[in-house]
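FW: tagging you since you asked about this chain on Friday. Here's the raw sequence from the shared folder, copied in full. Didn't touch anything.
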Amino acid sequence: MNRLTLVVLGTFTAILLISGGLSYVLRHQTKLDNAAVTSDAGVGSGATTRPSPGSAPNTSPQKPAGGGTLFGDLFGQDNPDVHPATSGGWQSTAATVTLRFSLAALLAAILAFRPRRGVANSRRNPYVGQTQILMAVVAAAMMMVVGDSAARAFGIFAAASLVRFRTNIRDPKEITVLLVCLGVGLAAGVGRWDMAVILSIFVLLSLGILEWFEQSQIFRSMEICVVTKNTESTHGVLKQLFTRHRFDMELRELNQPDEDKPMGKIVYLVNMKANVSTDRLSEEILAADRDNIDSVEWSQKDSQTYIYK
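HL: got it, structure written out here
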């Protein structure tokens, strides 16, 4: 994994740990408050319940308070839809929802940016990885909106079936953003304003993290054709320039000048960042070997190195 991938994974891990700590503290405080209220109510009433004569004693096992596992309590396994009425208020609900979103985003990021033998991270389409992460977050939101309601599940299915795409979208992440908007509308429609707000904020934060490093992950393939009198000298200049800018390069054609053709030709396929100016590169090439170079021509090529199109 490269440095940018580790930064993205580290950011989602930090969000996961922070939201998990908040969820634990708020849930623990809620349990203490409930215990205090129950104790005060018991002391105030002073009444004890005795079994009636002839009634059988209750021998069914009682679930101890707080008997769940730590992770089960943090993620609220007994409360799939995470409603404020059953999870100790909106503060605890917000922390639990953020924790679930963070776990989904982190695990999806690990799968999306997994190391692949023979394929560098720079050769992957970053839009696909971003889409996979957002899809995991959307799925987590949909399941929390549905909860245990079969009616909501059918409603989400009907709403999602209305989405149709007939236009080729360059960035598949925009499709996922549309699904996020669908999830926000569904959450608001069933009265889960807290879910709608948290989903919107978390997706905005995730998009900010992913798109911050986007420019350093995407590139364009350009073919450069240089006509020169001295191919040896110009070839050295091109290799030095591409190495200095850290471009991936591949020599495609090298024609030496002869009696019939006094001008030679060098053709390279170069993978460069999207924000690199070919005008500036052409000026640097001409300035480095002005006595020999006759012309510099650039042409856009379809990238053959992305494993996803």
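FW: Confidence is low (pLDDT under 50) at residues 58-67, 305-309.
HL: agreed, and The chain has two domains: 3-33+72-212, 219-301.
FW: great, closing this out.
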